[in-house]
Design brief:
- Helices cover 35% and strands 14% of the residues.
- The protein is of the alpha+beta class and 334 residues long.
- The chain folds into three domains: 66 residues, no CATH class; 134 residues, no CATH class; 101 residues, His-Me finger endonuclease fold (3-Layer(aba) Sandwich).
- The strands form three sheets. It has a three-stranded antiparallel sheet with strand order 1-2-3. The protein has a three-stranded antiparallel sheet with strand order 5-4-6.
- The protein binds zinc ion (5 copies).
Length: 334
């Protein structure tokens, strides 16, 4: 419950009382109740009882004092000055939104919705709905009040309320999905009603190449100065292979070898080949998870020519708890 208090001077005939308090309480159900402080009420009653003034005069004054500038409520009075600006911002945002939807169906022949792929003409997936803005001041005022009078928050809220619906996607996005997730997996995501045709995925498609294939070779990357400690020294790498591992880590520059996204130091996972126990390269956790269970063009390319092969580096991945010197053979696969 919110309440607002106002100072008010009361006049009755030739008597006046200064500094009375008029309070408006905003109830949870949206109703407003007004009250006047008791000393003022008693003062008015005494004056009227003594015949010192006309009760109708004071009634009219009080009714006028409780009228809102917005002709609605206290919330509307508070939000009133922000309404035109908010409406203007919304219109600009709507125009940008409309422009974003103007993708032509030749370049974007598919719709993606909740993981399902449709033809752009399919009527099944919901179309995106633009954020709706309140038509009337009072609805806006309530929203404005709920978001502490912060327009930024109001717009974030409205954007969150809007239904995203289906997203238009291009053929090359679908090719990238096929390359990464495997053709069979993408086929299982096709809408059964509109039966979209998949683009061709040829083995030389750039989408099927791990990001690291495009990285310059190590000889072109500035070398670590002699005497500088390897990037990360740890027990999972044999002491005599740590320099090689440091080279591999340096080459990655914090990027995932498959998707190429940069990640904070230490967030990349060492991907290793289980039969040989050799580290193949560094992957982000999402690519590392996918690597273990995806038989796709992209991951097959990666496994065929991972960073270790490109750089010619052999680094054994030691499981946690491994004591150097106790094992001389390869590390058994988990
Ligand atoms: Zn469909
Ligand atoms: Zn109102
Ligand atoms: Zn990745
Ligand atoms: Zn990533
Ligand atoms: Zn393992």
């Amino acid at each position: 419950m919110q309440s607002y208090s106002f100072k008010l001077d009361i006049r009755l005939g030739d008597h006046s009382l200064e500094g009375s308090t008029l309070t408006c309480c905003n109830q949870f159900d949206g109703k407003e109740t007004w009250s006047l402080d008791l000393p003022t009420v008693l003062w008015i009653l005494e004056r009227v009882a003594a015949g010192e003034g006309d009760a109708r005069e004071i009634r009219d004054d009080l009714l006028q004092a409780t009228e809102w500038d917005s002709a609605c409520c206290s919330s509307c009075d508070l939000a009133m000055s922000h309404f035109p600006e908010a409406r203007h911002r919304h219109e600009a945002a709507s125009r940008r939104w409309e422009e974003d939807q103007q993708l032509d169906s030749d370049s974007f022949p598919y719709l993606l919705n909740k993981g399902k792929i449709h033809r752009s003409s399919c009527r099944r997936p919901p179309r995106p709905v633009p954020p709706r803005f309140p038509e009337d001041l009072h609805t806006f005022a309530v929203l404005f009040g709920e978001h502490s009078g912060d327009l930024e928050q109001v717009f974030n809220f409205l954007a969150g309320q809007a239904s995203r619906g289906a997203r238009q996607i291009s053929s090359s996005e679908v090719v990238a999905m096929m390359a990464r997730d495997g053709v069979a997996t993408v086929k299982s995501r096709l809408c059964g009603a509109c039966k979209p045709r998949l683009p061709d995925l040829d083995l030389a498609a750039p989408e099927g190449r791990p990001a690291c294939w495009a990285w310059p070779l190590l000889s072109d990357v500035p070398t670590v100065a002699a005497g500088v400690a390897p990037v990360s020294v740890d027990v999972n790498v044999l002491p005599h292979q740590r320099a090689a591992y440091a080279e591999m880590e340096r080459w990655h520059e914090g990027r995932c070898a498959v998707c190429g996204h940069g990640h904070a130091v230490g967030r990349l996972v060492r991907d290793h080949d289980h039969p040989s126990g050799l580290i193949r390269g560094l992957l982000c956790s999402s690519c590392n998870t996918a690597e273990g269970r995806t038989d796709s063009l992209l991951f097959n390319s990666y496994r065929r020519r991972p960073p270790s092969v490109i750089l010619g580096l052999e680094v054994l991945y030691l499981p946690a708890g491994f004591q150097p010197g106790t094992h001389h053979q390869g590390v058994p696969a988990r």
